């Protein structure tokens, strides 16, 4: 039990005890009052005078006594070691004194002459002593516990242990208080102080952040962390520098850092809490998926078609552009939908026969990411009615369409169509040409054969071709016949 004050009877007992020790251990009992330890003066005896006690030791012993450095944190508890194990098994501890700096009055003492260490009285003085308690659960690990350490507690503490038969033992402890560094400051590559979010940074590009603190004892270390994983633990300044700096450099920012929070941790010593500065970062991402999801079916030139494209992975959400044959679709109706996860676009498209075989492109672009685009393309196929024309396919006929009577003429219905034409008809001066082998008129699909042609075959010939998109008629082709005359 720790006692702060005592009555006159106890004081007289302590005077006799210290007087007995004085002849052996140089303990002095001054006759004058000093503002020092008051031995067990309770409230009832508060008016009684107390006798101060000084304990003298050899200056040479103290001067060359090594001091163990113990770090303490202001506001927390600290323990100062003092081994009270007797040198001999048969010996025992008689007295324990704790001194601070050059004060010769013990700030804390323990009298074990009348009982074991676990049951003896503990005496304390001064503010630091009154916040202390000597723990003796294990003699080799005995220690003075100081609660709520204050800046004025820093200094040299000495523990003196007196034994019944063995020489006195002294230990010195240098209580050094941790001085916390300044709060971490974060700077970007341009040297600008980051007050909230850092960035924006671009996926696949460089990230640079500098964490800086001033002061600190012991000199702190700075580390960068993300989700419990250390990113950088290399301090970029000399140990003698007042400012400590750790520069974080990531050559290619990964997608995983989107909306991440990086931490700069200041660590000085194990017993002191880390100072942590959390920095949310903004990372712009390219789109990583884009697809035209509408089935690639044949498009009729006579109808309006819709195509849908979806994209994801971009931050901020991507904007979608439609292109046909490399040109933006300006006149088409485009509907956009976007959220944080994906974007979609629907285009209403009217195609022409000339668009058959061209590339339709859906391009997803992050407007805040230069060059951050991805595209999907497909070749479109346009269905259109046949384009037809009658062409001469016989060598006996001139280019002007003139042939000699009695020869054979072959006309072909030339067609371009998607899907291919599957039905043909032939017309002579607007009348359907029917198959007549006797007359030598032979229409067969896209070919019309006229054998042993007569004067009556003169006129305009046309054809029609049919597919799923409709039937188309060709312009007329004029056929002339050169008659042969017989002279008597």
Describe it.
With 488 residues, the protein is mainly beta. Helices cover 6% and strands 45% of the residues. The chain has three helices and 40 strands. The strands form nine sheets. A seven-stranded mixed β-sheet has the order 1-8-7-6-11-12-4. Strands 32, 34, 35, 38, 39 and 40 form a six-stranded mixed β-sheet that branches. A hairpin with a 5-residue loop joins strand 11 and strand 12.
DSSP strand (E) fraction?
over 45%
Summarize the main sheet: 7 strands, mixed
Quaternary form: single chain
Helical content class? under 10%
Number of strands: 40
| Number of continuous helical runs | 3
Q: Regions with pLDDT < 50 over 5+ consecutive residues?
A: 1-56
Alpha-carbon Rg, integer: 53 Å
Distance between the termini: 164 Å
* Overall average residue pLDDT: 85
Walk across the major sheet and give the strand order. 1-8-7-6-11-12-4
**Which of globular, elongated, flat, extended, rod-shaped describes the shape?**
rod-shaped
Structural class, from helix and strand content? mainly beta
């Amino acid at each position: 039990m720790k006692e702060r004050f005592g009555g006159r009877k106890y004081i007289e007992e302590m005077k006799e005890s210290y007087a007995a020790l004085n002849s052996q251990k140089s303990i002095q009992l001054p006759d004058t009052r000093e503002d020092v330890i008051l031995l067990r003066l309770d409230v009832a005896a508060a008016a009684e005078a107390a006798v101060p006690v000084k304990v003298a030791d050899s200056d040479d012993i103290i001067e060359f006594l090594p001091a163990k450095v113990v770090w303490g944190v202001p506001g927390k508890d600290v323990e100062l070691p003092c081994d009270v194990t007797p040198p001999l098994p048969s010996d025992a501890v008689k007295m324990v004194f704790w001194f601070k700096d050059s004060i010769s009055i013990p700030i804390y003492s323990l009298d074990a002459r009348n009982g074991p260490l676990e049951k003896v009285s503990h005496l304390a003085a001064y503010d630091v002593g009154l916040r202390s308690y000597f723990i003796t659960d294990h003699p080799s690990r005995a220690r003075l516990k100081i609660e709520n350490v204050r800046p004025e507690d820093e200094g040299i503490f000495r523990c003196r242990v007196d034994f019944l038969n063995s020489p006195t033992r002294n230990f010195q402890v240098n209580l050094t208080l941790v001085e916390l560094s300044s709060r971490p400051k974060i700077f970007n590559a341009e040297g600008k102080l980051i007050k909230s979010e850092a960035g924006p940074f671009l996926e696949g590009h460089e990230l640079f952040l500098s964490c800086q603190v001033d002061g600190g004892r012991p000199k702190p270390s700075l580390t960068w962390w993300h989700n419990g994983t250390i990113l950088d633990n290399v301090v970029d300044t000399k140990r003698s520098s007042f400012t400590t700096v750790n520069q974080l450099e990531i050559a290619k920012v990964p997608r995983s850092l989107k909306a991440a929070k990086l931490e700069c941790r200041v660590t000085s010593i194990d017993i002191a809490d880390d100072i942590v500065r959390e920095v949310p970062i903004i990372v712009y991402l390219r789109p990583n998926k884009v697809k035209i999801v509408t089935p690639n079916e044949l498009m009729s030139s006579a109808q309006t078609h819709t195509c849908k494209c979806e994209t994801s992975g971009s931050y901020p959400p991507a904007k979608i552009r439609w292109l046909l044959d490399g040109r933006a679709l300006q006149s088409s109706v485009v509907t956009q939908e976007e959220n944080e996860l994906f974007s979609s676009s629907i285009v209403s498209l009217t195609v022409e026969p000339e668009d058959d075989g061209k590339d339709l492109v859906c391009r997803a672009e992050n407007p805040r990411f230069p060059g951050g685009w991805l595209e999907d393309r497909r070749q479109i196929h346009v269905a259109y009615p046949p384009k037809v024309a009658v062409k001469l396919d016989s060598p006996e006929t001139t280019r002007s369409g003139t042939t000699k009577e009695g020869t054979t003429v072959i006309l072909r219905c030339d067609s371009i169509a998607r899907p291919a034409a599957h039905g043909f008809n032939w017309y002579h001066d607007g009348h359907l040409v029917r198959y007549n082998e006797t007359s030598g008129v032979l229409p067969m699909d896209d070919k019309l054969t006229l054998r042993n042609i007569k004067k009556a075959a003169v006129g305009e010939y046309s054809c029609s071709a049919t597919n799923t998109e409709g039937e188309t008629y060709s312009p007329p082709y004029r056929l002339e016949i050169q008659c042969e005359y017989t002279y008597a």
